[in-house]
Amino acid sequence: MNRTWFLSNTCYGQWLPGDARGFVGHVWEHRDGDDENDIRIVHDLLGTDYDGDIPHLEATVRSLMIGPPISLTLEHALVALTQFLETAKHRNWSILAAAIMFNHFHLVVEVLNDPAPGKILGDFKSWGTRALTKQFGAPLSKTWWTERGSKRILKDEAAVRAVCNYVLIKQPNPFIVWSPGSGAVIEASGAA
């Protein structure tokens, strides 16, 4: 069985929980005005709303940061993409589309069998971290990425095509967009 995942992850400190742009996070939903009935939910399903603006949450998270936000450069993006492709090859996964911007990355990945999506994204992030740290040194935060990322399953070929289009064509100022059919990395300005 093959599954295709749309994976996204931000760089450390670039898009915090509570951000006014919206965010995918673990939040409590209040039910019936009774705290006992509150449930913890994650709005990470394709097509569902993001969590909204929560300024006090963003301020709290910012105060807990152990280093400045990470902003990638073109050189970082090249190292990360090279490692993402190597990781996919080693795991026998196929990257269908990739985009790396100054503050986040997107991958569309077809995987064999059914590994946990957290493992898939975790492998890309951990091996990407090793490659970036080897080349550029460890950041003050000791991490290049936010703790969690978005892992959305793509249910059919139409969804895969739509998300690949989004990743390859609709990214603002990417350093790199890549697909197996492109034959080459396409570099753009990468400006914030």
Summarize the structure in words.
- It is a single chain.
- By secondary structure, the chain is α+β, with helices and mostly antiparallel strands.
- It has a six-stranded antiparallel beta sheet, sandwiched between helices. A two-stranded antiparallel sheet has the order 2-3.
- The protein folds into two domains: 131 residues, Alpha-Beta Plaits; 38 residues, no CATH class.
- α2 crosses α3.
- The mean pLDDT is 84.
Which helices and strands appear, and what pairs or packs with what?
Elements: E1 2-10, E2 26-29, E3 39-42, H1 55-63, H2 74-91, E4 94-100, E5 104-112, H3 117-136, E6 150-154, H4 157-169, E7 176-178, E8 186-187
Question: Could you give a quick summary of the protein structure above?
Answer:
Helix content is 31%, strand content 22%.
Strand adjacency order, main sheet: 6-1-5-4-7-8
CATH architect. name of the largest domain:
2-Layer Sandwich
Termini gap: 39 Å
Mean pLDDT, to the nearest integer, reads 84
Describe the global form. Answer: globular
Strand content: 15-25%
Query: Might you state the CATH topology name of the largest domain?
Result: Alpha-Beta Plaits
Major sheet characteristics = 6 strands, antiparallel
Output the CATH homologous superfamily of the largest domain. Transposase IS200-like
Order of helices and strands: EEEHHEEHEHEE
- How many domains make up the 3D coordinates? 2
Roughly how much helix do the residues carry, as a percent range?
25-40%
Q: Strand tally, please?
A: 8
**Treating each run of at least 4 consecutive H or I residues as one helix, how many helices?**
4
- Rg from Cα: 17 Å
Low-confidence stretches: none
Structural class: alpha+beta
CATH classification class of the largest domain: Alpha Beta
